[in-house]
């Protein structure tokens, strides 16, 4: 069987890891979509912000084969034609930070229903990845997936292992783990928060030797400047940026070197000694080393807000209950929940300014949501697909133009992933992943929500089909039972 694959997945048999290729969207043995044409549509050129009116986009064999003025086109008789007069078409969107875990059967349709045709999974056990493979191979429409497998962390870590961190005790263990993950076919290595300096550097060195990128958190023990210089390809959640912008960086890093700490509180402490000149030099280092930022502003924003019932209905009941329990803790003035709210509230006044300044200095920004449905996950309103549109709006509020926000979910991820020849813009030869909109997203980024249809891997999904891909779950009542 021929595969189209982005997603190379490990098959686990006892202790033996065996490689198996798998396609990133529908299986190739499924019925091949008929040639498809979208006529009289305005193409949004995300590379330069140009609008190309009255175009026809022709697709065949899951690729775009032609983009041409509608008056010049002659179509084969078997082409399925959709008249998109008055509509705008953009490339399929990318969410560059999600955690599928065991929710792929809900996540995949939700993502496509929101025009998200590609994702980067930032931490899951290989057993979960194997299950994604089975879903993908059954011919179900799904986004393209790039994945890291488990995150690499230090021997002492914070959390319950929900992302299946591998705890490393030495540089030798780190090198061996990188080698094993490369053999398992991961697309990149994810580094995590509590890696010691020498273990982090061993991962960076081994990743470079193996020719695989690494990305993720900036550990407390490592300066964000050093991380960029060592080749970390993306920094998630802005971790480490405020610490590396502080005039007290060495002191703060030393104070927190030997124990686990609440990262947001450390960031807030660092913000009190923010050094503009140092930050400017740091951002210049990011730009010069092509270090991408994935701010996931939506996480911080949603921790401060109430639950949206319209979104909650699309989330499994047990996750709704965790959201509501967290909200109840805040209302009951639970000390831990109140501390989180206070710290996040103060940081949320700072982060947008960081993003704006980094963007001005040429640091590439990518849209990611950190959507994760896991027990005890408190962040409300994080829903696969839906939350990407929230992130785009928050990036614009932080200072990006609508075009720059759109680029953060299209052409910039494609360049980052090394697939610019296949994704990120609407051009002949690229994957047939498109989103048709009722309104112009360059006027208002919220127009990305006004989806008329989605084309995923050459398959046309109309609005009715997309709505049918969403599920509704019961709401938990006060006693914890479902209503």
From TrEMBL:
Q: Report domain Amidohydrolase-related positions.
A: 88-459
What InterPro entries does the database record attribute to this sequence?
Amidohydro-rel, Metal-dep_hydrolase_composite, Metal_Hydrolase, Metallo-dep_Hydrolase
What are the protein's GO molecular function terms?
hydrolase activity, acting on carbon-nitrogen (but not peptide) bonds
Give the signal peptide range. 1-20
Q: Name one Pfam family in it.
A: Amidohydro_1
What is the name of this protein? Answer: Imidazolonepropionase-like amidohydrolase
SUPFAM superfamilies given for it? Answer: Composite domain of metallo-dependent hydrolases, Metallo-dependent hydrolases
State the source organism's domain of life.
Bacteria
| Keywords assigned | Signal
